[in-house]
């Protein structure tokens, strides 16, 4: 949707396959926005996941990037990823680790941690909220145009 308040583009896909004793799945969701009136006027938000299973789940491995994003902020740029990796073998070996990493063009230029980053999660939630507001406004404008077109057609 393109409108005076900005641009919002959403994409997503998923796929999987089974070959002999191996099963694999992959998916992604992507949101790109340009909202000139927002704190983060331009950004990209995405999720990516890939997983493998061997012999019906006897061994499993997965590495989802739960959240990732690029934010063009006033005066600097930022890239952020949060994800996890897991492995399970016969229920004997089970491991899971979650972490995040942030790169930006201002000091500090690099930061990372285990677990979650409340600051980044809030920034993503704010940006997604603004993008959804723009989407709602575009749908409202489209409905108004459709109503005006119907009224014009009925008047003629």
Describe the protein in words.
- By secondary structure, this protein is α+β, with helices and mostly antiparallel strands.
- The protein contains 1 helix and 9 strands.
- Strands 1, 2, 3, 4, 5, 6, 7, 8 and 9 form a 9-stranded antiparallel beta sheet that branches.
- A hairpin with a 2-residue loop joins strand 6 (65-73) and strand 7 (76-89).
- The two termini are 30 Å apart.
- The mean pLDDT is 83.
Task: From the structure above, extract its key features.
156 residues, 24% helix, 1 helix, alpha+beta
Topology of this structure?
Blueprint: E1 2-3, E2 6-19, E3 22-34, E4 42-54, E5 59-62, E6 65-73, E7 76-89, E8 93-104, E9 110-114, H1 118-155
Antiparallel strand pairs: 1-2, 2-3, 3-4, 4-5, 4-6, 5-7, 6-7, 7-8, 8-9
Q: What is the element string, with H for helices and E for strands?
A: EEEEEEEEEH
- What's the alpha carbon Rg, rounded to whole Å? 21 Å
Distance between the termini: 30 Å
Summarize the amount of helix as a percent range. 10-25%
What is the averaged pLDDT score?
83
Low-confidence region ranges: none
Largest sheet: 9 strands, antiparallel
Q: Look at the helices and sheets and give the structural class.
A: alpha+beta
Helices, by number, come to: 1
**Number of beta-strand segments:** 9
Strand content: over 45%
């Amino acid at each position: 949707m393109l409108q005076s308040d900005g641009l919002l583009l959403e994409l997503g896909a998923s796929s999987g396959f089974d070959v002999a004793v191996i099963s694999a799945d992959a998916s992604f969701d992507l949101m790109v926005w340009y909202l000139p009136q927002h704190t983060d006027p331009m950004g990209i938000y995405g999720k990516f996941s890939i997983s493998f299973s061997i012999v019906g789940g006897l061994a499993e491995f997965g590495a989802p990037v739960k959240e990732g994003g690029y934010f063009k902020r006033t005066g600097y740029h930022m890239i952020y990823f949060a994800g996890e990796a897991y492995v399970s073998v016969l229920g004997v070996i089970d491991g899971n680790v979650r972490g995040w990493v942030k790169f930006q063009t201002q000091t500090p230029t690099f930061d990372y941690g285990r677990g979650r980053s409340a600051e980044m999660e809030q920034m993503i939630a704010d940006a997604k909220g603004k993008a959804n507001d723009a989407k709602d406004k575009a749908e409202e404008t489209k409905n108004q145009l459709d109503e005006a077109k119907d009224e014009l057609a009925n008047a003629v």
